[in-house]
């Protein structure tokens, strides 16, 4: 079913925009024209747009206004591969509306988030004061991949231009059941590690002439898994470590292995960063086996936008520069309440997100989007009502933030 055959009351702009974006096969790091479409629409609204291609990654940076308050919307146009096409009820890049649900790759993660923001921008841009707010769009095609030349690069580029964002709203799918039921104000960091343990090969019948690498590796694993990391807080889960793989090479049942490889991953709280966490892990490992080699990969820093102390009902908070700025969390909560009649759950659960590249002591970051129940799945979909609600919430947030 196309939007033209829908009842007029739900022929919303966000649905139309979502269909245009979802029809483009923008598998990471391809953009497939999504950002050109956005650029065309944003320039018509008065945005000054820049497109940057960095190592095959497309990045769009757009700005409206010259005000002292810098508010940004962050998102990505890339999607994960669709998987087996014969498992889909309809082609993944031919969006279909059925039973008031929108099906297709990117329906949840996160082309509908971009569509809702563009529709909301079209609705309220004439009501914003360009002397009070600088409104940014920061869009990449490399969120689902290695994320080295996407939002990370954009954040570095803004810093080189002396741009300090006050607030960044990330359009990732944050909801559990209904749009607005959950917002995310932080994510745990992630760090993967590889440990190489060396022993001495020998016959199992003569263990005194050999050194069993598995036995050493087991002691290393025990040291890591028994260590008491931080337990977290009410707002943020604690740090956890999981061993994900062990390998000793070719197996022979009468041979003591001479080497073992341990793979592990740590999901860590905002109380750690990559440097101090990796130093702690090296210390724990080398206390067991000082000759073990350790290397780390796929680092993703944690971030946490701290809520105001006490009830978060006030519109403003004090930032790192001792200036009074609007409190993003409070205004998001109010916008959600206005649209849905309920306050959202404030969460820091889930994997990593591009919010980590923009979050710092100065920049407040909140993630707010449609339900994430079907992200990366076959027959990815959302209910149309969730998209329309998101459009309303985004519009309200823009008006609230820009008017304070």
Report on this structure.
- By secondary structure, the chain is of the alpha+beta class.
- The protein is built from nine helices and 21 strands.
- The chain has a six-stranded mixed sheet with strand order 1-2-6-3-7-20, with helices on both faces. It has a four-stranded antiparallel sheet with strand order 12-14-10-15, covered by helices on one side.
- Helix 5 packs across helix 6 and helix 7 packs across helix 9.
- The two termini are 42 Å apart.
Distinctive features:
6-stranded mixed β-sheet, disordered N terminus, 404 residues, 26% strand, 21 strands, single chain, alpha+beta, 4-stranded antiparallel β-sheet, 9 helices
Q: Biggest sheet, in brief?
A: 6 strands, mixed
Helix content: 25-40%
Average pLDDT, rounded to a whole number, is: 91
Shape: elongated
Please state the structural category: alpha+beta
Q: What is the alpha-carbon Rg in Å?
A: 24 Å
What is the strand tally?
21
Which percent band covers the strand fraction? 25-35%
Walk across the major sheet and give the strand order.
1-2-6-3-7-20
> How many helices?
9
Question: What is the first-to-last residue Cα distance?
Answer: 42 Å
Unreliable runs, pLDDT <50, ≥5 residues? 1-10, 308-322
Question: What is the succession of H and E elements?
Answer: HHEEEEEHEHEEEEEHEEEHEEEEHEHEEH
């Amino acid at each position: 079913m196309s939007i033209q055959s829908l009842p007029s009351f739900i022929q919303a702009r966000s649905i139309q925009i979502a269909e245009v974006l979802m029809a483009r096969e923008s598998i990471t790091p391809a953009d497939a024209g999504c950002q050109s479409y956005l650029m065309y629409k944003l320039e018509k609204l008065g945005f000054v747009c820049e497109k940057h291609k960095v190592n095959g990654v497309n990045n769009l940076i757009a700005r409206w206004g010259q005000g002292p308050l810098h508010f940004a919307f962050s998102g990505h146009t890339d999607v994960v591969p669709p998987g087996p096409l014969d498992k889909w009820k309809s082609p993944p890049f031919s969006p279909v509306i059925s039973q008031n649900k929108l099906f297709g790759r990117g329906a949840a993660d996160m082309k509908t988030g971009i569509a809702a923001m563009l529709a909301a921008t079209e609705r309220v841009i004439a009501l914003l004061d360009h002397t009070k707010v600088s409104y940014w769009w920061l869009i990449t095609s490399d969120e689902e991949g290695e994320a080295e030349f996407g939002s990370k690069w954009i954040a570095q580029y803004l810093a080189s231009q002396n741009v300090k964002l006050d607030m960044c709203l990330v359009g990732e799918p944050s909801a559990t059941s209904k749009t607005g039921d959950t917002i995310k104000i932080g994510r745990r960091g992630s760090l993967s590690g590889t440990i190489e343990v060396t022993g001495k090969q020998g016959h199992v019948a003569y263990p005194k002439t050999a050194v069993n690498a598995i036995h050493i590796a087991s002691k290393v694993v025990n040291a890591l898994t028994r260590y008491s990391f931080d337990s977290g807080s009410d707002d943020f889960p604690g740090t956890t470590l999981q061993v994900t793989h062990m390998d000793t090479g070719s197996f022979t049942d009468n041979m003591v292995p001479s080497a073992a490889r341990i793979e592990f991953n740590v999901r860590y709280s905002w109380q750690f960063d990559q440097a101090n966490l990796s130093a702690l892990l090296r210390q724990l490992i080398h206390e067991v086996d000082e000759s073990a080699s350790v290397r780390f990969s796929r680092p993703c820093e944690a971030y946490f936008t701290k809520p105001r102390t006490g009830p978060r009902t006030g519109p403003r908070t004090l930032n790192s520069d001792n200036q009074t700025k609007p409190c993003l969390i409070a205004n998001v909560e109010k916008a959600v309440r206005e649209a849905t009649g309920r306050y959202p759950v404030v969460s820091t659960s889930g994997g990593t997100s591009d919010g980590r590249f923009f979050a710092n002591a100065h920049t407040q970051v909140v993630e707010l989007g449609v339900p994430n129940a079907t992200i990366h799945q076959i027959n990815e979909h959302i209910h149309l009502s969730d998209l329309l609600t998101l459009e309303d919430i985004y519009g309200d947030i823009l008006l609230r933030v820009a008017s304070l």
